[in-house]
Amino acid sequence: MTDAPVSKPLLATLKGAKLPVPPVWLMRQAGRYLPEYRALRAEKGGFLALATDPESAAEVTLQPIRRFGFDGAILFSDILMIPWALGQDLSFGVGEGPRLEPALVDHALTGLKTAPERLEPVYATVARVAASLAPETTFLGFAGSPWTVATYMVAGHGSRDQGETRRFAYGDEAAFGMIIDAIAEMTIEYLSRQISAGVDAVQLFDSWSGSLSPAQFERWVIAPTAQIVAALHDRHPDTPVIGFPKGAGGKLPAYARETGVDALGLDETVDPFWAAASLPRALPVQGNLDPLVLIAGGAAQDAAAARILEAFADRPHIFNLGHGILQDTPIAHVEQLLAFVRRP
Q1: Residue 93 CB neighbour total at 10 angstroms
Q2: Which of 137, 219, 230, 267 is the most exposed place for a label (fewest CB within 10 A)?
Q3: Is the pLDDT of residue 6 over 90?
Q4: Is 28 a residue of the active site?
Q5: In this structure, are residues 333 and 302 in contact, taking their beta carbons and an 8 Å threshold?
Q6: Is residue 88 a contact partner of residue 112, using CB atoms and an 8 Å limit?
Q7: Is the pLDDT of residue 331 over 90?
Q8: Which residues pair with 265 in a beta bridge?
């Protein structure tokens, strides 16, 4: 474990450094728990308007860095930018979640007209943030993984068990494969453009990977993720890729071995001691505090954080949540967490 100072602690950890104090960032750290975010979103009038205005999206990305001094800034955007660029209409209804039209459960992918220009504001946001970040802060770009993105494209909305998409994949594997391939192809270009515009590393969010059987997990999660990772490594060999297959559980070792990701994000259901023993020894891991314990705060939060730090003391580790920070998280509890993780 090195004691030498590093210019970007989070990036160094992604590349295999074991640091005395793990770097910290939190998924969804730029979001609704911050009053400054809520004020800006109200001013812009909606999520999509905010996310496609580079000046505003850059401001949201930087807000938690100014307030907390996280080691990483995560691009403010959404995983559904890819379906939007593939030709579906995207909307965010008040209290309803995102909607994509037409839903591909009853509409052919070939009937959509791709619109890659819809992604241009994201690249402009990246350039703005990259020019504003302190040199020690790692800038993270991201995209949704093909399976998770496809669940929204097929159903037209989110669901509890992704049943509609799973039935579609079983019933017409060729058609579903075309959707996965289209997502993967555009995601490679999307993340490559983010890297060229200034991000230091990228994360693939597979929020719904836990809903699949082992065989389907291999086909719809591991295979397309490996395709994306290989292409990015070929184009940008020095840029780490973090995989986050939420809910993968016992399938995590296979994901780590077969996808080629440079680091693995763990959700809150994963026992950190099991992960430390089961995953490739040199693989950097990220996680995995329960977002709900961050709401509880106090001694419970400190105990949970201490257990994670103990489990990952002997490998490269980035401290994070097991999923996104929740809207009703007290700011004081985030401050408590940072003080605890960074204590001497």
Answers
A1: 10
A2: 230
A3: no
A4: yes
A5: no
A6: yes
A7: yes
A8: 286
